[in-house]
Amino acid sequence: MSSKTRVRLTPSQRLSRGLKYSTVGPVDVTRGAVGIGVNSVRSSASWVGQKYRSSQVAQQLKEELVAASEAVANLPETLEKVRAPKRRRRPRLLVVAVGAAVLAGGAAAFSIARRSTQPEPSPLPPSVEVTPKP
């Protein structure tokens, strides 16, 4: 049992085989030359695309460097703006004291309002006996 497997030749192998054999020579020479040309064009196109992408990256890096240098040049003005005295904040202790006073006043008002809504005990004796008889 023999199996015939056909080995595909690369363009350069095909070219050398075409130059070697005279019967299939012209066909192999043509196919080899075309294959080498196609591979060369494909490689060149890949190289050009790579160069284009790297030039775009370089352009973006250049723009970022320009922006960074401008930011560094404007750093003194930016720091002065940040260091400029702002409105003076009230001390925390004063805020806490005012909050505590408001809470104390609210608690006092709540207890006074609650006492006023409770009915006062009647001075009269109850009309029904408090202890039931069996």
Automatic annotation (TrEMBL):
One of its GO terms (cellular component) is plasma membrane. Coiled coil: none annotated. Residues 114-134 are annotated as: Disordered. It holds the Pfam family CwsA. It is a single-pass membrane protein. It is found in: Cell membrane. GO terms for biological process: cell division; cell wall biogenesis; regulation of cell shape. The chain crosses the membrane at residues 93-113. Keywords: Cell cycle, Cell division, Cell membrane, Cell shape, Membrane, Transmembrane, Transmembrane helix. Its main location: membrane. Belongs to the CwsA family. Required for regulated cell division, cell wall synthesis and the maintenance of cell shape. This is Cell wall synthesis protein CwsA.
